[in-house]
Amino acid sequence: MNRAPGTDESQFVRRVLIVVAIAAGVLLLWELRQVVVLLFGAVLVATIFRAISDMLEKHLRLPERLAVLVSVLLIVGIIAALVWSIGSQVSAQSQNLANTLPRAAQIIDDRLAAMGLGHPVVLWMRSLHSGGLIGGDLKGVLSSVTLSAASFLIVFFGGIFLAAEPRLYGIGLIKLIPPARRRLVAEAMKESDHALRLWLKGQLWAMILIFLMTWLGLWLLGVPSALVLGLISGVLEFIPYAGAITSSIPAIMVALVQSPELALWVVGLYVLVHHIEAYLIQPLIQQFAVDIPAVITLFALLAFALLFGVLGILLAAPLAVVSYVLVKRLYVIEALDTPTPIPGENKD
Which residue of 46, 205, 257, 336 is 20 to 30 Å from 156, comparing CA positions? Predict the structure, then answer.
């Protein structure tokens, strides 16, 4: 049967419009990539709230929204209690750390100069001043701080809203998917949420243990500001690989002010702590958490850093977990029809 003369033309136009719409959507997402990563941050916060509220619903029989409210108040209360109990000590040690680091930088610069390597640290500090990062562009610094504070508030309250009505937003997202694929996408979202909860659970334990080991080790070595340096190590444990290296730098610099021997002991402490983490803590945690291949985590860190900047670095690990699950479920299993285990599928 012959087609009508305009049929081929209309199909061509339709396909062109679809391609243009897809390209425009991709371009829009690229332009709004910072908003997208903030949205993921809100999802991460909501996952934390929901994990706690689900336990409250299960064990205390609380209504859903009340359980979410209690979980938010519980987290805020824990943070407030920590600030009240160790806030003054952390503040004093932070001030001491801020005073010590410039002296440590000068010592390092002097040692490099004695080795005939010039004054790289001094030149770097001068470049910061001349470039406006320190004092020269106060307006830019204040703008950056304000933007960071606003981003934090958006992520926090966005997480509360998502946690309060997860089904509303979930159903709204699934309605954007063609009907034939909605069940599949819903299953993939559920599996991603489960894997993310397990990862957060394991990461929380790792952060606490790293903080305790680092704090006690630095305290036993007599390093000033041991509590703050331990907190830095615990918090930066959230960032794979880069966090461990970055957290050791201020501790080594502070120890160097006391003596080169103490700095070497601190280097040894950090090497020991992270070996214990790699060969003892992580294997124990992976019994109830999810295990993502190291290569995927490393290159995800690089990729998300290039795509999203600092936010990408902070959220690289949870983004890698979700991406890994979605690729396995939607591409490897569904598109390629290849059986493969989903991270966390047999763990509670």
Answer: 205
- 339 in a domain, yes or no? yes
| Residue 53 · residue 68 · CB < 8 Å | yes
Which H helix or E strand runs over 106?
helix 64-114
CA nearest 86: which of 264, 295, 228, 291? 228
- Between CA 185 and CA 338 the distance in angstroms is 17
Question: What six digits make up the tokens of 57?
Answer: 């619903």
Per-residue pLDDT tens for 127-179? 555 544 444 454 554 456 677 788 888 999 999 999 998 888 888 888 888 88
CA 240/CA 316 separation, integer angstroms: 8
- Three-state SS string over 167-185 comes to HHHHHHHHCCCCHHHHHHH
195 domain residue, yes or no? yes
Please give the tally of structural domains in the chain: 1
Q: Mark 289-322 as b/e (b = at least 16 C-beta within 10 Å).
A: bbebeeeebeebbeebbebbeebbbbbbbbbbbb
Give CA–CA dist 200/328, Å, rounded.
Answer: 20
Dump pLDDT digits (tens) for 110-125: 776 777 666 666 666 6
pLDDT at 132: 46
129 lies in a domain? no
Which residues fall within 8 angstroms of residue 230, CB to CB, at 6 or more apart? Answer: 211, 212, 214, 215, 216, 218
* Residue 100, token pair as written in the block: 């010590």
Record the tokens describing residue 252, joined without a space: 């080594």
344 is a domain residue:
yes
- DSSP codes, 62-97: --HHHHHHHHHHHHHHHHHHHHHHHHHHHHHHHHHH
Please compute, for residue 175, the number of CA atoms within 13 A of its CA located in the half-sphere on the CB side.
Answer: 6
List the helix and strand counts (H, then E) for the chain.
14, 0
d(CA 133, CA 126): 10
pTM above 0.70, yes or no: yes
pLDDT at residue 40, rounded to an integer: 93
Q: How far apart are CA 48 and CA 201, in angstroms?
A: 9
Asked if 344 and 200 count as a contact pair (C-beta separation under 8 A), the reply is no
